[in-house]
Amino acid sequence: MKDEHNRSLRHLNRKAEDKDRSTIEVDSSAFFSETPSSQTPPPRSSSSGSGAGAALPPSKLGAVLLVLQAVLSLASLVQLWRTRMLPALYLVIIAAILALLWVLVRRCQEYKVPGTVSRVFSVALCAVMAMGCIWAQQGLSALGSMTNGLLTGMEAAKITKEPFVVYLSGVDTRGELTEKARSDVNILAVVNPKTKQVALINTPRDYYVDLAGTNSKDKLTHAGLYGVETSMETLGNLYGVEVTDYIRINFAGFMSIVDALGGVDVYSDQAFTSVGSPGYYDPTSFVEGWNHLDGKAALAFARERHAFASGDIQRGIDQMKVIDAMLNKIKSPALLMNFSKLMDAASDCFVTSLSQDQISALVRMQLSDFAEWDIQSCTVTGSSGTSTKCYSAKGQKLYVMKPDESSVNKAKELIASVLGGDGTVSSTSQTPEKTEVHTPTTDPNAAVSVPEESADSVILEAPAESVPEQPEEQPAEQPAETTPAEPETPATQPAEGETEAPSISLPSQEELEQSASSLYGAASTILDALLGSSSNNEKA
Fold this sequence. Notes:
Oligomer: single chain
Structural class: alpha+beta
Strand content: 5-15%
Largest sheet: 6 strands, mixed
Helix content: 40-55%
Strand order of the largest sheet: 11-6-1-2-3-12
Distance between the termini: 191 Å
Order of helices and strands: HHHHHHEEEEEHEHEEEEHHHHEHEEEHH
């Protein structure tokens, strides 16, 4: 029992020895005093009084950096607000983050080592924000140079709430994008921002349509010679919709935008090789399946028609595939990161009637929910033919495509479904001339059987400054020395309720004189024979 008691004492003694045995002096008189002592305990000494944990007043450099950081943070917020690319909630979050960073840098500068790190961080943050301000300003300047819309504020915000139709026009021009030029790409983009639906309606460039502002027909591509508004109205009349805006781009701008997006991925239904285009791209081969295309390859893919039996029909389908791929790339969050680069790429070869506020509203809408869009495509078809009654080249026999009414009606139904149901499109019917547009053959190459005239040979006379609303009646053309294979004949309008009779090809004056002379000679011969026979009988 004694040994156990000793062990317990030794255990207690070891614990007591581990404690701090320093003596604490206490003034008992102060404890029992009625008034508190004025003495304060001395501060605890620190073994590293000048170390990392010591509080220091901010240096002059740190104070300057804090002011600079605050100014640049405010400038960055202003620039982001001016681009109007971000919803208000995003701007509030960014403002809160910048404020927290400022407070963090301010607190860190009260200490030696963290203060040095915070100053380096502040310099880097200021440099990034300064570059961001310059980046946003370049994008705003480029955006302003390619838009000519005048809508602002709440009026522009309607584009995110109501369906609209945009004419996408691609023209083969080099250098400056002129206002009046033939359009090789003619696509209507029908957009419903509420249902997140887009319908792309492609119309071949040689479609034989009623030219807006006239009572004549012409190839669709020639409508661009009288301004983009004429093309918009011509397509609007064809499909019975109001085309409110346009986006026009040339081939150089198309390549620049695709490159700015980092290329696009396009699916090809078949393997083919496109012919080269001097100044644009070399012959390019494509595989069946997915193809990653840069700017030049995308243009070669979208322009090729000679490699297909259906010619321009397949070209239109491929064009919409490229546009679909571009839309999928543009609607991604990467748009904001490529904003300035994308605007710079398109500024010199891109024109649109949409205002800056309208474009910004659409981007804000997409960034707010990153919604998936339902994009549908439709290409109207037709049959090969020729016409000598194109408004822009009267008397010249040109290749045209006779519209197929069933495909046009199908496109109208798609437009109506995207715009919001029945009753949104009117019943507009295209009636091609029966005497000038030939019916198709069973040959699968019929769509490209008639070679297309070159751009320089189709215009006999310079087009007027604008399309007259009521052109004067054109007199019947007299046969010239170089008469076309199928001469024009005077066209008479059938009376109401009557069917149009086919035109009859009349002989020329020379042919009439030759026929009359032949008939006179034959009649004289017959008459002489009869008279001679009668005289011989009398003599007998």
